[in-house]
Amino acid sequence: MDAQTIALVIAGGGALGVVVWLLAKIGKALIKIAEALAAAAVVLFVAWMMIKGIVWALRQVLTHWRTSLTLVVLAAWWHWWGWASLALTVGIVAGALTGWRLVALASFDAWAGRHLRAWWLRWTVYSPSCPTGCTPAA
Fold it and tell me: Are 55 and 5 part of one and the same domain?
C-alpha cells in the first residue's frame, strides 16, 4: 500500500466518523422533536376527551334535569347536614309511605302510589328501551 491509499483510507474513515457523528446528532434532535410532538398530542387528546366529557355531562343534565336537580339537592343536604341526617330523613319518609300503604291502600294509591309507580316504570321499563331517553308527549 502506498502513502496515497493510506491517506485516502484515513480521510475516508475520518469523513465516515464525521458523517456518523452528524447522523447521531440529527437522530437525537429528531427524537426530541418526536417526544415533544407526542407530548403535545397527548395533551391535545386529553383536552379533547375532557371537552367531550363536559359536553356529554351537560347534555345529560339537560336531558335528565329532574334527576340532576335531585342529585344536587341530595349532595347539598349531605354537605351541609351530613349523611346521618339524610339517611334518617329518607328512612322516615320511606317508613311513613310504607306505613300509609299498609294501613290505607286506597288513599295511598289515589294520592301517592300511582305517581310512585309511574316514576318507577319510567325509570326501569320505558327509559331503557328508548334510544335517546324518551320524553312524554305534551
Answer: yes
Closest to 112 measured CA to CA, from 124, 126, 95, 100: 100
Predicted TM-score of the model (pTM): 0.51
**What residues make up the domain containing 106?**
81-131
Q: Looking at the structure, do residues 85 and 59 belong to the same domain, yes or no?
A: no
End position of a domain, from candidates 10, 33, 63: 63
CA-to-CA distance for 56 and 64, rounded, in angstroms? Answer: 12
**The dihedral formed by the CA atoms of 64, 67, 71 and 73, expressed in degrees to the nearest 10:** 110
Give the model confidence (pLDDT) of 51-109 as tens digits. 999 999 999 888 878 888 889 999 999 999 999 999 999 999 999 999 999 999 999 99
